Structure to design on (996 residues):
């Protein structure tokens, strides 16, 4: 069996692309660099939209990136079922691209916050969380200034009743509604979260946990099973 | 050459922590008589040509798709003057 | 805007020809901070009066900031007393020093101040401080891999501290985070002496292969001079408008801002763009544009290369089309670099810049004329031997003597203090004091994880990075580097010689206890006015102390920065040498974390 | 109850990286005819009382000391309507 190929997207200003690629390799998959200006998904099996400050996060985080040529390919592919995950800036881009509902706004504290964050896995029925236990509590780093999840009351109600909240903060760091740290789309192939699984995959560096491996392990499991 | 202004504000039901922080700071700084503050964005868009209806329509599209996130924000477009 | 445009067009260009024809025209050298004898030397060098543009170049290049005219005679000791070090690949005199860290790898690091701008506009001042030091590191051919910041503020509860401190921290955080550089350490110290003169010292460390070092040099006649990055605007050129208006009796130049605004996104693009340019081997020489902008880059590149350069200033891309040549020369617009490129490599160079959305423009050519020649509207406005501006600045042996109260200050020992009655209360008070309390409220605003190479960061005494994965495609190594910055203005005030040594010793220890072997030193010397003999004494003593200590410990100084004039009226800050030490650890897995890591371990006190 | 608007923009000579990034993105997004964009802030200040001269004077002071950073920004105050 050839290794699963996970695309890692680089926009101008993307920062965590090397880290995401390393995490993909750590679980035995192949990391395929995808460039924002190409109309080419290179036939990957899944896509990781890493964090950073794409286009400086000027205007609104993710607002400019969502118009990239690559996104013109990615948006229909995601709608058609391609597994896609966005972390931090990647989550913001997925919301701006309307692949996920709601929006991420300025932290309630008005400060950027970098810390190790306890998070509960609320939903394992997604392409990216199948390797976790339902309700498992994990530690992942967060580092963002605009991570406060907001959505209309209707949207929130639909997220909750549909089981679309994937991660919830234990100790809300940014004022997110319903302590939401991550969500999925209806089909479960698209997931966005503010915490950074790619910074929690090795003992030596990053957060004092390797819980992030679960995300990368999940996609592998998912791809092998299908 | 004309200038078009696009104002973008958070929808009223969305929490505005920046505006709140300012409103809370005001009494401490000796300002009274303010019941609320909301903070939004103002864009000054310089057009190469005149601000005719076609140009304004372009700016409206720009506001709708790029300058504002209509999930959480409202916008308004007007010619300066 | 249009008014200024018309105003500008009324200007007559002060060409070399015109300068020769009007030898007695008074020039505003004093307004630009130049002394009469310095101005006379310029005239002697040129054999005529300088043009406005030439005066702009000499005045910035001969400023204290760029020429180190008051500190040079003392800083020499870092070289003359330097211990033998096989690790030193590039020493003082370049944008940053480079040390060999083994297995074919090299590290480059440097600390620099942005004190005054951070007082005027804390956010932008601190942000552009980070931006500047990162470009220094980039210009050595390295990938910047981490930053640190050493900060000093007035009393924590002072009104002005409430203005300055949040802005400074936000500025460092927003700029550094946006570049994707982990912040792995630094200092935050409060003392009333810094109230009107906060210190913002930023350190950057970069990594490169030993054989990839780039230098600021423009060799090879016919090679092209490329300006790339942000366009040039009226940033930080308050002084230059004096020139433009005073020379030409023209009031139309609106007041120019002294504040520089940073664009971290452009800088991030510049980093990636530069690394790709290096990898493609299309850069012969490179220099960042910091203080003194185009003046500094052109004179230094030319002076260190074949010796000559022709530049057409009309080709410099402008953000504000009304800028005069004098202003272009002095602009401190951020996020700009200058490269020397073989003509045959220009297409490849431009293609890489385009890929990264970085504007790039050929503005000139290397020559063997021994002259830096610049034109504007077809007229020659600068024609100078570049070395006279870059290297042959004035050198001062400033008088110094021990401060009048120094003996009394030292005689006033803690013996006089009342013994605290309640130790518990005293301890709690100490723990709660701003200088000892947790700094997490600062460090939590800095990204310490990005790039996933951070082995140690806050609260460890030294930051540590693994290096094997810091550059794409490099062969694996278990090695890592550790860094710490330290300084204590109160010790240095009591005894600047010992105070500087203590700063080094502390940084050295912090690196050593992480498990790394200290290798090299950088320093930022923050002092009051060098024209005050008592301050100058503090400076001379601190440098002497640091140089002696470096020799004793066997670690060379590879570079640094001097910041003078940190004073309000006649009151100077405490002399504050901030010292950074870089060390190497053979196996990062063997790092020693700070704190009691497990129960049951013995606690041993070492030293006395 | 009245609403006063405070517009805060970077001074014209100060670099506006946000506005520049937007302006550079526009052609790629299919918008043409825009020569420049500048981004600033818009504050909506709700007064408890009427927007008389005294109240406006207060808001101006507020803009000067808190809402704008006059080292790099200009502001303007007006009653909405
Ligand atoms: N305190 C210092 N210790 C050691 N070297 C210093 C010190 N201050 C300046 N230098 C060195 O002097 C040289 C000139 O300074 P430089 O960094 O080029 O100035 P700038 O960056 O402001 O143009 C550099 O090599 C620098 O490392």
């Amino acid at each position: 069996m050839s290794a699963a190929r996970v695309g890692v997207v680089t926009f101008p200003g993307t920062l965590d692309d090397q880290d995401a690629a390393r995490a993909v390799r750590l679980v035995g998959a192949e990391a395929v660099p995808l460039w924002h200006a190409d109309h080419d998904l290179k036939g990957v099996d899944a896509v990781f939209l890493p964090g950073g400050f794409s286009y400086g996060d000027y205007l609104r985080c993710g607002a400019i990136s969502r118009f990239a040529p690559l996104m013109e390919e990615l948006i229909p592919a995601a709608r058609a079922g391609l597994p896609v995950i966005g972390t931090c800036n990647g989550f913001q881009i997925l919301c701006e691209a309307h692949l996920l509902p709601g929006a991420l706004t300025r932290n309630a504290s008005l400060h950027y916050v970098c810390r190790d964050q306890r998070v509960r896995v609320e939903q394992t029925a997604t392409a990216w969380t199948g390797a976790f236990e339902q309700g498992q509590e994990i530690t992942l780093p967060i580092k963002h200034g605009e991570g406060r999840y907001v959505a209309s009351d209707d949207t929130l109600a639909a997220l909750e009743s549909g089981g679309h909240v994937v991660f919830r903060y234990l100790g809300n760091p940014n004022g997110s509604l319903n302590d939401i740290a991550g969500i999925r789309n209806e089909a479960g192939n698209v997931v966005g979260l503010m915490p950074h699984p790619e910074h929690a995959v090795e003992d030596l560096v990053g957060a004092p946990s390797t819980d992030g491996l679960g995300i990368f392990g999940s996609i592998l499991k998912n791809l092998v099973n299908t | 050459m004309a200038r078009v202004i696009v104002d973008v504000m958070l929808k009223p039901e969305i929490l505005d922590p920046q505006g709140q922080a300012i409103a809370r700071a005001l009494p401490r700084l000796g300002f009274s008589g303010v019941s609320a503050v909301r903070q939004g964005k103002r864009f000054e868009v310089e057009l190469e040509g005149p601000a005719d209806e076609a140009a304004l329509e372009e700016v409206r599209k720009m506001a709708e798709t790029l300058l504002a996130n209509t999930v959480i924000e409202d916008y308004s477009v007007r010619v300066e003057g | 805007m249009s008014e200024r445009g018309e105003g500008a067009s009324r200007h007559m260009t002060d060409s070399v020809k015109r300068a020769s024809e009007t030898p007695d025209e008074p020039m505003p050298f004093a307004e630009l901070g130049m002394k009469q004898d310095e101005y006379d030397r310029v005239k002697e060098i040129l054999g005529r009066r300088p043009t406005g543009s030439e005066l702009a170049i000499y005045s910035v290049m001969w400023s204290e900031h760029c020429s180190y005219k008051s500190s040079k005679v003392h800083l020499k000791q870092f070289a003359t007393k330097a211990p033998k070090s096989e690790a030193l690949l590039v020493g003082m005199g370049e944008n940053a020093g480079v040390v060999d860290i083994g297995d074919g790898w090299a590290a480059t690091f440097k600390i620099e101040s942005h004190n005054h701008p951070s007082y005027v506009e804390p956010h932008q001042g601190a942000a552009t401080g980070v931006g500047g030091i990162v470009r220094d590191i980039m210009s050595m051919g390295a990938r910047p891999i981490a930053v640190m910041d050493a900060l000093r503020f007035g009393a924590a509860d002072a009104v002005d501290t409430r203005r300055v401190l949040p802005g400074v921290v936000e500025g460092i955080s927003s700029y550094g985070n946006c570049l994707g550089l982990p912040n792995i350490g630094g200092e935050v110290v409060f003392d009333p002496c810094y109230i009107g003169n906060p210190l913002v010292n930023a350190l950057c460390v970069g990594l490169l292969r030993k054989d990839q070092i780039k230098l600021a040099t423009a060799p090879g006649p016919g090679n092209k001079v490329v300006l790339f990055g942000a366009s040039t605007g009226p940033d930080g050129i308050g002084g230059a408008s004096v020139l433009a208006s005073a020379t030409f009796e023209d009031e139309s130049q609106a007041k120019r801002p002294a504040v520089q605004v940073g664009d971290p996104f452009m800088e991030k693009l510049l980093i990636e763009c530069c690394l790709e340019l290096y990898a493609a081997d299309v850069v012969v020489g490179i220099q960042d544009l910091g203080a003194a902008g185009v003046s500094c880059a052109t004179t230094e590149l030319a002076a260190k290369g074949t010796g000559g350069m022709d530049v057409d200033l009309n080709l410099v891309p402008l953000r504000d089309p009304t800028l005069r040549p004098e202003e272009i020369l002095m602009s401190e617009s951020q996020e700009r670099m200058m490269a020397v490129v073989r003509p045959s490599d220009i297409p490849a160079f431009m293609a890489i810049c385009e890929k990264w959305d970085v504007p790039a423009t050929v503005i000139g050519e290397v020559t063997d004329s021994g002259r830096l020649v610049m034109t504007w509207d077809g007229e020659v406005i600068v024609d100078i031997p570049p070395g006279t501006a870059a290297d042959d600045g004035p050198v001062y042996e400033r008088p110094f003597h021990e401060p009048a109260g120094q003996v009394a200050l030292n005689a006033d020992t803690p013996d006089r203090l009342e013994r605290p009655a309640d130790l518990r209360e005293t301890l709690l008070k100490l723990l709660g004091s701003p200088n000892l309390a947790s700094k997490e409220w600062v460090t939590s605003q800095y990204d310490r994880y990005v790039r996933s190479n951070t082995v140690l960061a806050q609260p460890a005494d030294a930051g540590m990075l693994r290096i094997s994965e810091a550059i794409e495609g490099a062969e694996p190594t278990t090695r890592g580097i550790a860094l710490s910055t330290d300084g204590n203005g109160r010790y240095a005030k009591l005894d600047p010689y010992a105070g500087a040594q203590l700063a080094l010793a502390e940084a050295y220890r912090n690196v050593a206890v992480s498990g790394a072997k200290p290798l090299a030193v950088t320093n930022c010397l923050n002092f009051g006015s060098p024209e005050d003999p008592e301050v100058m004494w503090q400076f001379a003593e601190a440098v002497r102390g640091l140089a002696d200590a470096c020799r004793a410990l066997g670690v060379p100084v590879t570079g640094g920065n001097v910041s003078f004039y940190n004073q309000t009226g006649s009151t100077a800050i405490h002399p504050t040498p901030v010292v950074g030490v870089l060390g190497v650890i053979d196996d990062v897995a063997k790092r020693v974390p700070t704190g009691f890591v497990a129960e049951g371990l013995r606690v041993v006190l070492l030293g006395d």
